[in-house]
User: Which sequence fits this backbone?
């Protein structure tokens, strides 16, 4: 890859990370930490694969994240699903990896802080 296209790729990845941050900062979606293996009923299975560590609930505007795994990459993955509902799983996975490759420490901090403002536990009846 040429230096120019690498620069372009890095710019694109960081722009997309900022878009995820803007989306999360609107506070219209919440993030719920769950144990995916014993996941609560409120976390509907959608098209969950057996190894899934997160899921995106469009109706409830909730991102479910298994806190026992890599929270940052899962958060970014589910944010991409939420922000771009028409992207395929493959496209989401590719963009997640690209964002993770170029994510700056500052962007990681901002994403953590924005997530903490909307972070919750599963509804009580599930526990
Ligand atoms: Zn996915």
Assistant:
């Amino acid at each position: 890859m040429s230096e120019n296209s690498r620069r372009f790729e890095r710019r694109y990845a960081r722009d997309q990370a900022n878009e995820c941050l803007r989306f999360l900062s609107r506070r219209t979606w919440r993030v719920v930490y769950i144990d995916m293996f014993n996941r609560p009923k409120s976390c509907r299975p959608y098209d969950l694969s057996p190894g899934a560590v997160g899921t995106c609930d469009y109706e409830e505007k909730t991102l479910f994240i298994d806190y026992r795994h890599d929270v940052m990459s899962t958060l970014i993955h589910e944010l991409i699903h939420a922000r771009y509902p028409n992207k395929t799983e493959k496209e989401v996975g590719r963009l997640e990896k690209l964002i993770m490759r170029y994510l700056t420490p500052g962007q990681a901090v901002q994403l953590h802080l924005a997530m903490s403002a909307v972070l919750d536990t599963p509804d009580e009846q599930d526990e």
Q: What stands out?
A: The domain at 3-121 is CATH 3.30.2010 (Zincin-like).
